[in-house]
Input
Amino acid sequence: MTRLRARLATIGIGAALVAALTVFFLESRVDTARPREAAAEVQAFAQREATLNRDLVLARHGYLPHVDPLVAHMRGLEAQALRLRLLAEGLAEPWRGDAQAVLAVLEEDLAAKDSHIDAFKSRNAVLHASLSYIPVAIDEAVRDLASARLSDADRLHAERAAARLLRAAHDLAGPRPELAIGTAVVAAAELKAYTTGGSAILAQTVDTVLAHLEMILDTREALDDHLRAATAPAMEPQARRLDAVFSAAFSAAAERAATFRGLLFTAAVLLVVYLGAILARLRAKASDLARTNADLRQEMESRAAAEDQLAITNKVFERAVEGVIVADADGRIVSVNPAFTAITGVRPDDAIGRHWGGLTLDARADQDFPAIWRAARKVGHWQGEVWNTRPDGSEYAIMLTVTMIENWEGRPRSYVAVFHDVTDAKASAEELHFRTYHDALTRLPNRAMVRNRLAMAIQLRKPDEKVALALFDLDNFRTLNDGLGHAAGDALIREVGQRLTAVVDVDVHTVGRLGGDEFALVLRGFTEVQQTVAVLRQAFQELARPLSLDGHEVYVTASVGVAVHPTDGRDAEALLKNADVALARAKEAGGNTFQFYTQDMEAAVFRRLTLEADLRRALKRTEFALAYQPKVCGTTGQVLGLEALVRWVPQGRPMVSPAEFIPVAEQTGLIVPLGAWILQEACTFAEHLRRQGFADLTIAVNLSARQFRERTLIDDVAAALARSGLPPANLELEITESMVMGDVEQSRATLQRLKAMGLRVAVDDFGTGYSSLSYLKRFPLDALKIDQSFVRDLTTEADDRSIVAAIISLARSLGLKVVAEGVETQAHFDFLRAGSCDVMQGYLISRPLMATDITAFLRRHCDGWRPDGHPAASPWPTATTALARPPAEEQPAIA
Amino acid sequence: MPVLADPATSLPLVRRARLLTGLALAGGLLLLTAVAARAGDPAALAAPVPPPSDAAGLPSGEPVEPLPVTVAVDPRLADLGRHLFFDPRLSGDRTLSCASCHDVGNGGDDGRALAEGSAGTRPFNTPSIFNTALHARYGWTGHTKSLTEQVGHAVEEEMAGRWDDIAARLRQDPVYGRLASQGLAEDRLKAALAAYVATLVTPDSPFDRWLGGDTTAIDEDARRGYALFKSYGCASCHQGRAVGGTMIQKVGLFRPFFPRRSTVPESDLGRFAVTGREEDRHAFKVPSLRNVAQTAPYLHDGSIQTLEGAVRVMGYYQLGRSLTDGDVADITAFLRTLTGRPPGTARPPVREPAS
Output
């Protein structure tokens, strides 16, 4: 009840304040336009009245052509009076009454003025009509005098009177008419007197004059009275009074407004205070309520939260992926969740009641469960990874967290163990580790791993033990890969990896793939280098087994470079580098062999670098020369052609073997200018011979792989022919199988262009590379040159005999000539001739000869070479074989 | 007091306080609006016709000056007035409209000697309604001082109309609903009529053109007539832009005009009937001579049929002389040049007088 009343009172106060605010606001407004308007109106009224008075005076004296201005001023004054009345009505009492009283007087005066002006106007009109007419009438009277029957004296008097009257009439219109009045009256009387009895017309005229004069005189005074009356009521004081009333009223209004503004401000302040008070009260009440509510809510919430928590915990416990074990203070299992069973394979019945330390079956020594439990009890917490075994025997890894829960005294109350299965995660981590250090294709250790193993082997080696690194590089892998496809190449690599792995015990030694077709073998735990060689031999045997790829039978050979610690390198890096050098040497040696690193090799590397510099200089100085080895017909012995072979004799130094400098030239690109020079030189020499009568000789020039790929080849050939003048048919280019197998289409195009020029093309070293018959068929070839390695062992190796026979038969079927190289003995010659080999070349016929010697050779055998014909001319069989046998490194001018 | 206080109870308290404040503010706003709306201009209705300007162009020194081309009034008010002017519902018996006597197509009067009002023949000749905005008094006796007063007089006295009835009648008509959005009170109707009448000016007469400098606008006779008009003193009264209408003058200044006739003796008293002053006996408003050639017959009782007759009567009684035939011919020639361009007023759709 009290509250209700208080509330009503509060609302009442608020409403009253708002109402007061509204009223005060309305009352505090000040109309600033109205006072100005009122002042202006009063001013204008007074001004207009003055103007009207002025115009009245002007009209009185005939200076106003018409009275329109008077009418306008009067109307204006009336309109202004009306506006003033409206303004006055807007005033507050008592000023309204005052203003209205003043206005009443003003309006009364105005009405009186109007009335007087009316009278003034009509009289003024009459006056001025007469004033303007009198001269006309006097004029007429004088005219009538002339014809009147009057005595001359009377006429003269009359005329004089008329003249005086005229002047007086003029003066009457002037500013001081008083003086003229008497004169006019006397003159008029005289005129009347002297004209009496003149004539009727004259009398009428004179009467008119007199009537008008009379009218003037009658009107004048009344007119002036009205004028005075019209201008007399000085309205200015009234206007001033009105102005005063207005100012008083407006300043009072302004004061009142100011008062209300004050009140407005006060009310506004009160309202703000009131609202503030209400707000404060509300807030206080609200915060009281909020506190009470918050307390209750907190209690409810904590209860609900506890329940929720319990429910959630239960749910988490039941549904968690993590296994949970709850044990009491003594470590006896109180409860486990389903995930526990899922991970450990232990049923809840088997677990509950047991000590949880007993769950461990096969943990590592430092992480058995009792130990973990002890740690947890000691520090309250344990976390780690644990391997364990399920009852069914499978192993699993878990990430385990054990937390001790204390009771209020801080003593252990229970233990909670949470864990999740990390077996898979660990497996992935291991896989990642594996990938980082293993080659994906062969799953063998990769270069990084090999290096690690190597480093480890060096580190762990016993004093008398050695560590060997053998680098394997497959011979001609690229050709195989290109020819059979990458899938086949991958299969080949995998197979090689497997074979190498089979050779050694990988627990002790390491087999790795360094990339591409390069493998590495790290051998450890041996004392004699011979043991290494045994392993390598075994590896070679293993690799030598034929390999079936895509239905093709493929043979793989490898070049191997070996470096041995501690003699060949102190650390892994040095071993790798030196094994590489040895490998390069093995490759240079033709592959399918192994090479141990020697100090000489380092010197060889150095030599190679200096060689390059020398080669560049040699090209500039033309330190090269060509040797020519004759080729003869297998049946007739006729000299068919010469093979040009390059020789380098640096100034002041011994000759450098082509086997040494050609690879360097090839690597550095110097082979291109060198090749061009050889072409030119060979052509020029051939043309020289042709001019000397050896017209049918064919000059054969070897092309290098690089030269063959070069775009300028065609131009170089054409230029050589053009400059020398040699017919194209006399030039034969020798290429190798591997050169054309790279980009088959490009090679075919190049060969076709060369053929189109009219040249001959022969395949050199046939039988050593990977030959595809289908390609062979597609290339425009003229001859095959059987590699000298087959010819060399022709007499001893049955295999080589059959290979040579096969090549000859193959060439036959393709319509190609067959050239045999390396024919050194009569036995070779006989065998080849029996096998219908077309052309023979070798030390049996002639060693390569310099230009001057070749001319002599040709002259000597101009009618055909005979093995038994000119023993002196050629290095002949048995006697000179040892001497004449070409050095191992003797190769064609361009490999 | 319950332990857990209902939080809802505190809400209406706040809401109620807000509601009250809102209401009070809204009330204040309404008050303000009302105060603002009260502001208006009552002067607009009180003076629908602006006072004629006192300076019509450069002072020429001539007693006659050209008429203004237009008179500035509220066009909406004038349009309402135009409808009223032609509306017979303004008369008590719905037979007469203002236009019944003031034919705006022909001189602004009715051509009769005496006016025919609702109560029969009136004692005065109908004056022209043209150019009356420039007059100082209205009616032959000058009984009214403004057009507003005069239209009131005409409707009430001549047409027997009652403003309440008129408003009631017009309210039925949707046309007035559109025209008179601010109501059909007496003040407004009178103001509208006055505003419309003020627009009825006849500028561009030959004489005005001559005054404006067009020397061929009037002929020799008229020019001589204008000279006589001035020198004989006619222009003393018939002057200004309306060539009259601005003063009261006694008829029979030089010779007694009355009691020459007795057809309408009550009207012969002139302004005396209004003021009761002896000096106003036989005094009448000086009529405007604009379009005078079209407003025969002449004088307050329509007793003079021709313009020449009127000129002779005026000369004889007012100027005290007998004008020669030549003078009369010249003066009438001049007076005929005062006929201006009739106001281009479109008559609103014809309203059939209610049967």
